Amino acid sequence: MRIVQLRKSRLFKLVAAALCIIPLIYIVFLQSSHEDIKFSAFSSKKVKTKPQLVSELGNFDPRNVADRTGAGEGGRPHILRDDQQNDASQTLTEFGMNMVCSDEISLSRSIPDTRLAECKHWNYPEDLPKASVIIVFHNEGWSTLLRTVHSVINRSPPQFLEEVLLVDDYSNKDHLKGRLEQYITRFDGKVRLIRNKEREGLIRTRSYGAKEARGEVILFLDAHCEVNVNWLPPLLAPIYRDKTIMTVPVIDGIDFKTFEYRPVYQGGHHYRGIFEWGMLYKENELSQKEAKKREHNSEPYKSPTHAGGLFAMNRDYFLSLGAYDPGLLVWGGENFELSFKIWQCGGSIEWVPCSRVGHVYRGFMPYNFGKLSQKKKGPLVTINYKRVIETWFDDKFKEYFYTREPLARFLDKGDISEQLALKERLGCKSFEWFMDNVAYDVYDKFPALPPNLHWGELRNVASQNCMDTLGHGPPSLMGMSHCHGFGNNQLIRLNAKGQLGVGERCIEADTQGIKLVFCRLGTVDGPWEYDETSRTLFHRVHKKCVALHPQTSHLSLMPCDTVNTYQQWTFKELQPK
Ligand code: UD2
Ligand code: MN
């Protein structure tokens, strides 16, 4: 998609020139202006029309009134009084966000326009497809859910909004029962509500929403979002050009305690959605080379994957890909499933800088996974990852995942024969193709993983306790605790290149002791050696061994003493419990 940038000076020159030249050319110019408007979003031609003909949609936001002064207006943080703090912390526990704060902020509050200035000058086709905005929710707070709805209604050109479709994933909170049906009657049918008959999880609920939707395009939002100025046309335009493009807005942050609206990226930097080999979602700055493929910095660009919550797609295309894999459970991994499926089976994903949407990142997840989590053994999100990689990865890449998540080998992924059949039927390309042509920047940050030489819990022979991150994030000292056999913070891996890892983090040593640190991006090696005979863990650079202090439990490097049991360690491989 190309931008049409109308700088004022140029415009005046254009208008002046147009008024001066002979009438015949002037008439031709006017007659062609409609075509220019229609397709200018896709061509590099400069728009040759009067400014009022081009700017309406590019700035569509009749209600974002800048001078509103109420709580949270302008996206400013709203700070509660001291006597409200008790209620506030109770809602934090219940919803993962401060609902007392949210309840005091207008459902139609103004927020800062966080787009690149250039975005105001884009000109979009007038016959874009209509979208069903689908919002699935489970036990969400009232004002956050409805602020999402109001922001969509307020900031979407009505001719492109088929409906807002609310899909309740079996919530059991009173405020989401009859009161919600009653409330949405004010939207004159533009907002519809449907409900699951049992808890399905967000993934299946989205697929259900897509089936029920009436719009040509489906557009998903989480139930705690605020869409920004003119968010919709830029997401629809690439799909109008090509039905196999998924479009993704840039996600700004809304603070879960103060509801401050904060732009995620500024200064014209762009990021792509990628992943590490444990399938944690990451973002990586768009390379200069890639950025320069576009004429203007606000143009969409290709991305290997996306965060999951917010995106638009042609509805028929989504359904032709089988929607989400119905075997995925509740939450997690569906962003990869859909992304790999799209790219490998002939579609593409574009991130759209001129479409910005705020999202409340919660402090923690307030809901449990319900009955669905008991249907399968083992950690549910890892099972989802396993389903996805077993369907879409080639064998070589599967090994990277199992190296990083050794316990996943034992989990039951369920039946994926339908997914494999779909892949076959659609003639989808290999994962190697995807890595080489789309996700090539993953390797820069996360190179291929050497196999584990040892993994499991790392038990000290003298204390019989295990090395443990104790739930602390990096940088922090590693600790010791009772060996629990669940893995998690005690699951330690030593790879063939000497890197000692726990989850996505690494273990290193300095003068303070043995530490959990961020792994050096782009590297998979390290200084460690394990000797199975002496059971010592040796640091090649410092030429010392890991020792546990008998009294303090402090871990540090000491001159190697192979008969000292406080320097002896055993790796014990685990099974999922
Ligand atoms: C992120 C995504 C989220 C989803 C998830 C992985 C963003 C901003 N958010 O986590 O959309 O892709 O990763 O799966 O990219 N919900 C249900 N039923 C459930 C659980 C949740 O309907 O059983 C709803 C929930 O009310 C919310 C949406 O699903 O509207 C996403 O859930 P979340 O906000 O807890 O996920 P989030 O943002 O942590
Ligand atoms: Mn969310």
UniProtKB/TrEMBL annotation:
Chief place where the protein resides: Golgi
Region spans: Disordered: 58-85
Q: Per UniProt, what is one GO molecular function of this protein?
A: carbohydrate binding
Q: Which pathway or pathways does this protein act in?
A: Protein modification; protein glycosylation
- Give TM segment ranges: 12-30
Which residue numbers delimit the Ricin B lectin domain? 455-572
An example GO biological process term is: protein O-linked glycosylation
Q: What class of enzyme is it?
A: transferase
Task: Describe its membrane topology.
Answer: Single-pass type II membrane protein
What this protein needs as a cofactor is:
Mn(2+)
Which compartment or compartments is the protein found in? Golgi apparatus membrane
This protein's UniProt keywords: Disulfide bond, Glycoprotein, Glycosyltransferase, Golgi apparatus, Lectin, Manganese, Membrane, Metal-binding, Signal-anchor, Transferase, Transmembrane, Transmembrane helix
Q: Name one Pfam family in it.
A: Glycos_transf_2
Compositional bias, Basic and acidic residues, is annotated for 75-84
Could you tell me the EC number(s) of this protein?
2.4.1.-
Q: GO cellular component annotations, sorted alphabetically?
A: Golgi membrane
PANTHER family named in the record: N-ACETYLGALACTOSAMINYLTRANSFERASE (PTHR11675), N-ACETYLGALACTOSAMINYLTRANSFERASE 7 (PTHR11675:SF68)
**Hey, which family's this protein in?**
Belongs to the glycosyltransferase 2 family. GalNAc-T subfamily.
What's the name of the protein? Answer: Polypeptide N-acetylgalactosaminyltransferase
User: Which source organism?
Assistant: Cryptotermes secundus
